[in-house]
Amino acid sequence: MLLCQDRALLDAFRSGAPGALRTVYLHYAPRLLGFLRAGFPVSSGGQHFRFLGLRQAVELEDAAQEIFARAFAEPARRSYDGLRPFASYLFAIARNVMLNELRRHHDRFQPCAAPPEAAGLDAEPEVAVEEAEVRGLLDQFVQTLSVADRAYFGARFDGERNQADAARHLRMTRIRARRIEARIKRELLVFARARGYLANAPLELAGALAKVRS
Amino acid sequence: VSACADPRFAELIDELFVDGLSRRSERRLRDHLRDCPACRDYYDRVVALERGLSPSDHAARLADGFFAERAPRASRPRWIAAALPALAALAIAAVVLAPRLRPPGGTWHSRGAGAARAAGLRAFCLEVRGGEARVLGSLPSSADAAGVLACPRDGAVQLAYTLDGGPPRRLTIVGRDADDRIATLLEDAPLTPGAVDAPIAATVPLSDHAKGHLRLYALFSTRPITAADIPPLVLAGDSARLRALADVQQLVIEVGP
Known about the structure:
A: mainly alpha, 6% strand, B: five-stranded antiparallel β-sheet, five-stranded mixed β-sheet
């Protein structure tokens, strides 16, 4: 509803102001990525399908960039009236982009007897299992953190703050927050490897990163 | 879970997750991922962690890539283009800050040089919020680029010079960023002898700058030099010819996320 409720932002978006485009991108990207991962019903030539979703991160990210590029092209921006929800507009573009893939990647489309409106919109079980696995891993990882690091983790990630806001919230400098976060993330990679979630790194991570930063 | 076959790309994926990559490195990684199923699997897992921590971070990373790839490429790099007119805004902050631009360790000292060659540049990392500016850290220049000044991407770098009471000196500053974009920041400007950490009109906002190292070359010369000659020498890494023209010192800024 972002663009429907903010006339100034809508005007800036339609004129292509970089700040407005970025605001719109950041607001809608998580939903678009979720939509593309989960899959959705589509119709073509009187036939109904379920697009099974994009599982690989590179494909998912490339598709999202392609969809935003179309949505942010000048004719598309100018033609957006601000009355329809922008998410629906974006999802319509996503359906068209993915339908163009129907011939090349038929295996990603499951024939569906029911019309699209009746088809479910729940995420594929595989996606739900992966998300649950990551949530479980993160829950276990947090238990291994020191009190101070857990406070940072809570402010930054559980509190859904960006790094600058988390730093302000914890009354520390941005540079200190950045260092703490980098260390926590390095520890998370090591933890994920130890638990078998990630394959062992060909190089020792800590040493490699220390070399990069020195 | 498959291991990434090429350790260099596994490292890049880890770096991307931990602290971000320069635009050039990220492009190199993405090109590789399109052709390497094993690295794609590894990338999938790391991105799932990133998303699990913060879906917004994943979106922000994609937004950075999206807008960087579509930004018009001016003949002058955008970070420099932004720097010169930005003086109207940030140089005001610098003037206000000037009395406070003092490093914790006192005044600048030339590394390994006698008093007769005491000329140097210092970079101050500034956090600017609502008209208020705060110094987050500083780093003196040196002949061998010793040390790195980390500065967040929403910050700015203010430069200041120190010069002894010896012969008049002139200063040219050339910058080279992580994407190998290069530009002249200050052209053959005369310096005031005896100045200590005097701010110069060259504040560099980092918001449009690629993550990674931004390297500044400060050329202190006793005679006028043609600033246009310097960028090709910097790009070519021709330190011998640079040193023939001037006393060359370097500063490395690590632009953060």
